[in-house]
Amino acid sequence: MNVKEMNIYLDSLPSCDSLNERKGKTMSAEFGTRNEKGEWRPPYACRYAPIFEWPWKPLKVLKWLFGWPGYLWPYHLIYGILALVTWLYLIPSAEVCKVLSPDWILLMLVRNLAMIWIVYGGYHLALYQLKLHGSNRKYHPKWQEKGSKKFLFKNQVFDNVFHTTVFGGFFWTLWEVAYLWCAANGWIPSLVWESNPVWFVAFFLLIPLWRELHFYLIHRLIHWKPLMIAVHSVHHRNPNPGPWSGLSMHPVEAFLYFSVVAINFVLPSHPVHFFFNSICTGLSPANGHHGFEGPLFEGKFITGSYFHYLHHRYVSCNFGEATLPLDKWFGRYYDGQGPYTTKGFQGNQDPSE
């Protein structure tokens, strides 16, 4: 459902401050339903992008590609601008990067931590501290946990902030430092606009698809039981995720997650391609983990991922994202409607229990 469709849906609902019982469920004054446990779900199913729908519909694909919100904007445009600004103003010169030095490496780390705190901290401040959106369209009925021994410091937010800042920020920076060092010394293939403008543009369009494929493969790997217990369980401490849960990972998972940028060490690319890849990887988890269905704030702010929330809720579904239908192809897709059912699990069963 796009913004226009959602507004039409909202206008069709009666104006009321209380909750109305409809067909045994609770309908809020905005839209969506809450079950008897207080869990919110939208009135529409999760849907994949139309690029793999058959019969293929070119106009629908073009609308998805160029529409608002769509594949190109707002977020990929924002990440692209950040990548360009980073390349132009926020990295050392190639001459400096030829030699590994704590001075410029520390500046890279500070830059990434600043972006993390602005984006992840901004979501947390708005949605969980100031609660500017209240609990409207919040998937989980509870706020972040306190007093639980499963979290460092017995506090979900502190635990998530620690893992995101220490391991997320570190491995994000590690891969960037490795790239700049190798590029400065001429050890990896490079690309400039003049040499191949078609590939230069195409690579930007393909990077998000590569990110989804890489994420799916790594995610399935760390759901292998030994790695799930030893590594990925750190991230899955958060069945009720918040913004800081996005990069809250075991160091092994953080290293693997950011290894998506390794493609830029192999295929000819420009530094802006690399930073587009790394910034997408570093910042996008905030959008998918804050726990609310967007668009927020009267439909003005495009954000949220019910698709990924369902993975945190049920564990055994929706390993990928919502562009490449990998989970549908491999029998692990749950669209959020009706009883939980996917390959290997039936009914309202939580496989994490």
What does this structure look like?
There is one protein chain. This protein is mainly α. The chain has one domain. 50% of the residues lie in helices and 3% in strands. It has 14 helices and four strands. Strands 1-2-3-4 form a four-stranded antiparallel beta sheet, with no helix packed on it. Strand 1 and strand 2 form a beta hairpin. It is globular and about 60 Å long. The N terminus and C terminus are likely disordered.
Features:
353 residues; 4 strands; 4-stranded antiparallel beta sheet; mainly alpha; globular; disordered N terminus
Task: Give the helix level as a range of percent.
Answer: 40-55%
Oligomer: single chain
Helices and strands: which structural class?
A: mainly alpha
**Lateral arrangement of strands in the main beta sheet:** 1-2-3-4
Radius of gyration: 21 Å
Order of helices and strands: HEEEEHHHHHHHHHHHHH
Number of E-type strands? 4
Count helical runs. 14
Mean of pLDDT: 89
Largest sheet: 4 strands, antiparallel
Mass-distribution shape? globular
Q: In the residues, how many domains can be counted?
A: 1
Query: What percentage of the residues does DSSP assign to strands (E)?
Result: under 5%
Distance between the termini: 32 Å
